[in-house]
Amino acid sequence: MDTAQTLDADATTAVSSEARQYLTFLLDEAEYGVDILRVREIKGWDTVTPLPNTPEYMRGVMNLRGTIVPIIDLRQRLGLESIAYGPSTVVVVLKVMHEHGSRIMGLVVDAVSDVYNIADTEMKPPPDCIGTISTEFVNSLATVNGKMVIIVDIDQLLNAGELAIAGNPAQ
Fold first, then answer.
1. Interval 121-136: pLDDT, tens
2. Dist. CA 162–CA 167, nearest whole Å
3. What are the two backbone dihedrals, phi and then psi, of residue 30, each rounded to the nearest 5 degrees?
4. CATH superfamily of 19-165
5. Is pLDDT at 111 greater than 60 in this prediction?
6. DSSP secondary structure string, the chain?
């Protein structure tokens, strides 16, 4: 019996060493994921300070323990229908890499869903057309517990277009 437990533990270790963890969140009934190592914190929605002459999806900035963090409404950024923020609306604060280093940014999402371990072998490339989301913002797709999870390339998503000039470098 001890041998079987040891074999099971070895098998679990082998699978988990290939897998990475992803924080998933909901937008318009679809589940999206980001590498959990990029997540700095999850906050309930709170008011932000709007900035003039910014894209509509840039809600504004918030002061997070001395760091000014740009807040992006991910629904609007992806071209999805806007909805009123509710009690499950949260801001996922992420570290985003860019050509000059990194910066901290926040994404407003409908709700946080779960944390999944997903093996690289379970990742599939996105099809050429996946609705309103440009494939350049999608790393891969994975099926977890019978549902599709869209793994987002946050670096590409948050460094494209007008956002390339938004935000302060992380300190």
1. 899 988 766 555 556 7
2. 11
3. -105, 155
4. CheA-289, Domain 4 (2.40.50.180)
5. yes
6. -HHHHHHHHHHHHHHHHHEEEEEEEEETTEEEEEEGGGEEEEEE----B--TT--TTEEEEEEETTEEEEEEEHHHHTTPPP----TT-EEEEEEEEETTEEEEEEEEESEEEEEEEEEGGG-BPPPS-BTTB-GGGEEEEEEETTEEEEEE-HHHHTTSGGGGG-S-B--
